């Protein structure tokens, strides 16, 4: 038995299957943990990438034991072993018992594949259920599950379990380093990002996610209403109510005043309601709201507001004297009502 997990491996091909494919099996001799890949051929060009992928996931082993098949006798696999840094050991020809770990696993695996074909199920997916059960069941030789020996923890299954994980010094150190790193990243994010001022009920513009060209605007001109907010997640709905709610990060929105929202309309005055223009303690009623001028148009005075007789000037001795050279009031271009002073 090897001194530790993933140091000595056994590899073998199983097949061909009725579909013309093969099963490439790699087993750790310490934990009996199996890894199976489906390949279309047994050439070195198909085998080397799979072995390289397993090494990148689980680490570099010391020895890989195989039979004398054509992919393992090739010059390409020999160079791959030398460049990667593991020893390739080939067993005695025509004596498969030397590679018993891989050969013994092929028997129950092929039963699972055959049962899937008889039951007309997907034979490429059904064996994964067998792999989960095999890796989580104590092996008769070691008395421990292959998963627990390889990863130093118990695998999670549907059955109720009692947690047996005990933190060690490495775990405590890793947690402290992780907390310090996350606190530093949070401080940098708070320093670099502007404060979020989006709240429920605000009118916002969303980031344009579908740009047809380089000149497309960064923000979608369609306004949205903020209906929910949870942390940095904001949910908005279209002001027209014709689209579904959209959830994005707060950085994808920009708040705008309600008066700047497209489609907003100035309040109108009902027909028949009077508006009052106040100028120096004077009130000039305007009966029709539709005759209200715009910014550059002058309002129209009602006929009853224009005096028909000459105005008089009140003196302190309560004498009434007609004012001479008094002209009629007129309206300027800005909408102001002007009366020239009386000349005595």
List keywords for this structure.
344 residues; Nucleotidyltransferase, domain 5; SH3 type barrels; 4 domains; five-stranded mixed sheet; 16 strands
Please, could you describe this protein's structure?
This protein has helices at residues 44-58, 75-84, 100-118, 127-136, 146-151, 169-192, and strands at 8-14, 22-28, 34-39, 63-66, 87-90, 203-207, 219-230, 233-238, 246-249, 253-256, 275-278, 283-286, 312-314, 320-322, 330-331, 337-338. It is of the alpha+beta class and 344 residues long. It folds into four domains: 8-151, 2-Layer Sandwich (Nucleotidyltransferase, domain 5), CATH 3.30.420.10; 169-195; 203-260, SH3 type barrels (Roll), CATH 2.30.30; 275-338, no CATH class. A hairpin with a 2-residue loop joins β7 (219-230) and β8 (233-238). The longest helix is centred in the middle third of the chain and has 24 residues, at 169-192.
Share of β-strand residues: 15-25%
β-strand number: 16
Largest sheet: 5 strands, mixed
Radius of gyration: 43 Å
Summarize the helix and strand pattern as letters: EEEHEHEHHHHEEEEEEEEEEE
Instruction: Classify the secondary structure makeup into a structural class.
Output: alpha+beta
Q: How many H/I helices?
A: 6
**CATH fold name of the largest domain:** Nucleotidyltransferase, domain 5
Oligomer: single chain
Highest CATH level, the class of the largest domain: Alpha Beta
Q: What is the CATH superfamily of the largest domain?
A: Ribonuclease H-like superfamily/Ribonuclease H
- Termini separation comes to 127 Å
């Amino acid at each position: 038995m090897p001194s530790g997990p993933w140091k000595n491996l056994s590899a073998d091909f199983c097949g061909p299957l009725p579909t013309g494919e093969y099963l490439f099996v790699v087993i750790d001799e310490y934990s009996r943990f199996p890894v199976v890949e489906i390949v279309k051929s047994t050439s070195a060009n198909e085998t080397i990438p799979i072995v390289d992928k397993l090494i990148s996931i689980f680490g570099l082993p010391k020895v890989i034991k195989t039979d004398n098949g054509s992919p393992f006798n090739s010059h390409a696999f020999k160079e791959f072993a030398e460049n990667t840094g593991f020893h390739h050991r080939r067993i005695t020809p025509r004596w498969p018992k030397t590679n018993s770990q891989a050969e013994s696993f092929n028997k129950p695996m092929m039963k699972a594949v055959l049962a899937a074909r008889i039951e007309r199920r997907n034979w490429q997916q059904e064996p994964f259920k067998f792999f989960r059960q095999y890796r989580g069941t104590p092996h008769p030789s070691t008395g421990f599950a292959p998963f627990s020996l390889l990863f130093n923890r118990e695998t999670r299954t549907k059955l109720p379990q009692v947690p047996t994980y005990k933190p060690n010094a490495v775990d405590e150190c890793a947690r402290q380093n992780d907390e310090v790193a996350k606190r530093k990243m949070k401080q940098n994010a708070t320093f670099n990002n502007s404060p979020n001022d989006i709240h429920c009920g605000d009118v916002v513009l969303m980031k344009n996610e579908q740009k047809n060209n380089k000149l497309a605007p960064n923000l979608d001109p369609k306004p949205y209403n903020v209906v929910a907010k949870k942390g940095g997640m904001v949910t908005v709905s279209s002001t027209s109510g014709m689209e579904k709610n959209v959830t994005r990060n707060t950085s994808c929105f920009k708040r705008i005043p309600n008066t700047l929202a497209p489609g907003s309309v100035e309040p109108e005055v009902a027909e028949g309601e009077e508006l009052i223009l106040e100028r120096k303690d004077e009130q000039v009623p305007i009966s029709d709201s539709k005759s209200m001028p715009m910014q550059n148009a002058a309002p129209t005075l009602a006929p009853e507001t224009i005096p028909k007789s000459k105005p008089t000037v009140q003196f302190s001795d309560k004498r009434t004297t007609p004012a001479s050279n008094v002209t009629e009031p007129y309206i300027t271009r800005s909408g102001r009502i002007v009366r020239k002073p009386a000349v005595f």
